[in-house]
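so my prof wants the structure for this chain in the tokens format not the other one, which i didnt know existed until like an hour ago. anyway here's the sequence
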Amino acid sequence: MPVVRGCNLPDDLLYDVDNNLWYRPEGDGTYTVGMTMIATGMAGQLVAFTAKKAGKTIGAGKSVATVESGKWVGPAKILFDAEIVAVNDDLTSNPKLANSEPYGAGWMVKVKPADAAAAAALTSGAEVAGPYEAKMAADNFAGCAA
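here's what i got, hopefully its the right format
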């Protein structure tokens, strides 16, 4: 598993480095989407998570959810056109799950891409360390060390 500045990036996931999101292919054409450990590290403790409704189609670069911490409020932007097929209600009721389990119980939404080839734009876990090192340097983010 790549570890960049103390931040874990599981190599079985795909990444949208620019938007700090991970995507897990589910084998049925859908993807589970969540915030990376880097995103939660930069945002701090989450206090609110509000996803768009299941069944809604979201355009590339548009928000699937709004995430709020004590120091940041912002959109979770999806990389490609997709329909939201499920929302993590547990995360809505307990936003801190994104901090404690970013790659597990802290997932945000499940989506079905409009184009099955859309995921080709994501970065594989095996190749993500370099792009994330550069992004963290550009963002002046020291890392996830506790």
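also thought this was worth mentioning. The first helix runs from residue 37 to 43.
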